[in-house]
């Protein structure tokens, strides 16, 4: 049953999508978290906007305690708390509350986890194996994997690419990132070659019989029906291509983004350059990629210390 609280959540999510440029994947996560919060409020006797004005710091702390007692992982509690805090701040800006009840809410600290990263040879093995398949989307799938890994794109940035965003002559692509921030990224020749093959062979076949029109605003990557490919479809492609790896690693588009950043730093790239390529506003978001495993530490030690 949809309540007034759900309509308020929808208003906030619409703001995140239109004004803040949040991806559909992020908005789905926020919707689930905030609907969960609304159900908790309803059990506490809060069912409409007027009653929401009774929300205070104590109720929010009880909600966080409820999540912890219910067995939610600390990272899940932190994510839900962040969604609630943003929602209440939006409500304050819209005049729902005289004060933001979540302003002094301390968010639980997320456990620091190192990003999962593939080895370059693992990526090569999976790509070569895929190249022997006879799928009708083979060229498209190879091209989108190469762009994700070769440019460090977020999946939302990839599916949002249009034909006019690719400059083959300059070997660049124009990407619209989080918050509508635009950046221009270099593309290596191998990725451009794969992309050109897809555009010349498969994409025209997918567009036959579709209602797509010409022009630079056409989606770059389309499905077999000629429509813009979805982020969910891209995730399925990535999972299928990399499920052949030993150990049953579950690979997502973000794992390829992590691999892109880590391999650049391991190759000697400056952290500031990697920050720009990834489109990070905060350097702290980039510094997680500076991790080194024990083998790398020993290798650096052997090559740098005079006694080694």
Question: How does the SSE layout of this entry go?
Answer:
Elements: H1 4-18, H2 24-43, H3 49-52, H4 57-69, H5 74-93, H6 120-131, H7 138-151, H8 155-159, E1 166-167, E2 172-176, E3 182-186, H9 189-207, H10 231-242, H11 253-266, H12 271-278, H13 283-287, H14 294-304
Antiparallel strand pairs: 1-2, 2-3
Q: List unreliable stretches of 5+ residues.
A: none
Element pattern in H and E: HHHHHHHHEEEHHHHHH
Per CATH, the class of the largest domain reads Mainly Alpha
Average pLDDT for all residues: 85
CATH architecture level-2 label of the largest domain: Orthogonal Bundle
Give the terminus-to-terminus CA distance.
Answer: 68 Å
**What amount of the residues lies in strands?**
under 5%
Helix content: 55-70%
Give me the CATH fold name of the largest domain: hpI Integrase, Chain A
Strands in their spatial order, largest beta sheet? 1-2-3
Structural class: mainly alpha
User: How many separate domains?
Assistant: 2
Molecular shape: globular
Largest sheet: 3 strands, antiparallel
């Amino acid at each position: 049953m949809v309540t007034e609280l759900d309509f308020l959540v929808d208003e906030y999510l619409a703001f995140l999508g239109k004004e803040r440029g949040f991806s559909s994947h992020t908005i789905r996560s926020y919707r689930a978290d905030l609907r969960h919060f609304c159900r908790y409020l309803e059990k506490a006797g809060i069912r409409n906007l007027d009653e929401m004005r009774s929300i205070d710091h104590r109720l929010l702390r009880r909600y966080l305690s409820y999540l912890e007692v219910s067995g939610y992982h600390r990272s899940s509690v932190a994510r839900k708390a962040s969604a609630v805090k943003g929602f209440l701040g939006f409500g304050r800006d819209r005049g729902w509350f005289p004060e933001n009840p979540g302003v002094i809410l301390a968010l639980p600290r997320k456990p620091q986890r190192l990003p999962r990263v593939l080895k370059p040879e693992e990526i090569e093995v999976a790509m070569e194996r895929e190249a022997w398949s006879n799928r009708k989307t083979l060229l498209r799938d190879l091209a989108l994997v190469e762009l994700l890994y070769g440019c460090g794109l977020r999946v939302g940035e990839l599916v949002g690419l249009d034909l006019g965003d690719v400059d083959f002559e300059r070997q660049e692509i124009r990407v619209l990132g989080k918050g509508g921030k635009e950046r221009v990224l270099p593309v290596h020749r191998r990725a451009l070659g794969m992309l050109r093959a897809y555009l010349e062979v498969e994409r025209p076949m997918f567009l036959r019989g579709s209602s797509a029109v010409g022009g630079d605003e056409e989606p770059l990557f389309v499905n077999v029906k000629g429509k813009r490919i979805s982020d969910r479809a891209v995730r399925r492609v990535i999972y299928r291509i990399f499920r052949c790896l030993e150990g049953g690693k579950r690979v997502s588009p973000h794992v390829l983004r992590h691999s892109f950043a880590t391999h650049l730093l391991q190759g000697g790239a400056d952290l500031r350059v990697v920050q720009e390529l990834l489109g990070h506003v905060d350097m702290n978001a980039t510094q997680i990629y500076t991790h080194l495993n024990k083998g790398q530490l020993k290798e650096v030690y052997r090559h740098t210390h005079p006694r080694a």
